[in-house]
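Working notes for the structural subgroup meeting. M.R. asked for a predicted model of this chain before we commit to crystallization trials. I am recording the input and output together here so anyone reviewing the notebook later can reproduce the run.

Input as submitted:
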Amino acid sequence: MIPAAASLPVAKLALAVVTEPERATPAPVGAREDAMRSLLQTAADAGVTRVATRPQGDQERLLGQAWPFPSPFSVSVRAVAVSEGLDRVEARARRSLERMGLPRGDVLLVSGAGDLAGAEGRALWERLQALKDRGLYRRVGFLATMEDGPVLLARRFQPDVVQIPCNILDQRPVADGVLSDLAGLGVDVHVSSVFARGLLFANRETLPIHLSAYGVALSRTRRRLAEARVDPMQAALAFCLNLPPVAAVIASVASAAEMRAVLAAAHAPSPDLDWSSLALEEPAALTTGSHDLISNAA
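Returned structure, recorded in C-alpha cell form:
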C-alpha cells in the first residue's frame, strides 16, 4: 500500500498544457489566449507551480501571452532532437524562453535518452550544461523510458532531473526500483504518462491496433476500479502522487475544465487498492510513439 502524502497533492503536481487540435477545442486566436489564461489561472489559484512544455506548435507563444502576473510557475522545456544539429538544439532552447517571455527556465530536458547514447551525446550534454552555467536554465536532465536504462544514463551524465513514464498500468519503474535508484543518485524524478496516455479512459473499440491484445486486461483493470468505486483519474493520480521518490507528477490538460477535474481527483482521498493487481503484465508497448495513444483523453 502506498504511504499517504506528507503534503498537499498539488505540491507535486505539474501541468502539461495540450494545444493539439485533437485535444484542444478549436477557437479563434483571441479565444484560445483567453482559454489558456483561464487554465493557467485555475492552476495557479489551486497552488500548482510547475509547467512542462514542448517546442512544438504555438504552445510556448500562448503560454507567454497568458501567464498570471506575477507568475508562480517554474517551467521545464524539452529540447529538440539532436538530429536537428547541436547549434539548433541550443538556439531552440534559447528561443523557447523568448517565446514564453521568460528570462530563465527551471529545467531543460534532452528530448530522448537515445540522443545521449549516440555519437553526439557528450557534446549535446555539454551544450545543455553551458546553458545552465550561463544561468538560462537552473537544471538540466533528460527524458527516458525503461528500455533506455535510465539509471545507467544517470550515473554517466549526473543529471539534475530525469523524466520517465509511470502509471498504474506500467508500474515497472516502481517494481524494478528505478525511481528509488534515481532518487538515490540525487536526481529529481518527474513522472509522465500518468493516465497511461489515454488508455485508462479508452474503450476496447477505440484501442490502436498494436494494443488490441490489451483490451481484456484493460477492461479488467477498469472493472476493479469500478468495484472499488474509484474513478480512473483519481486512482492514476493517487498512485503517482504518493510515490515517495517522485518530485513531480505531470498531468496533461487542455482546458480549465480538465484542470479542475485533475485538481478534484488529486485532492480526493487516496484509495486503498491492491495497486500491483492493476498493472499490465507486458506494458512495454505503452511507451511506444510520441503522442497520446487515445487522442481525446486527459
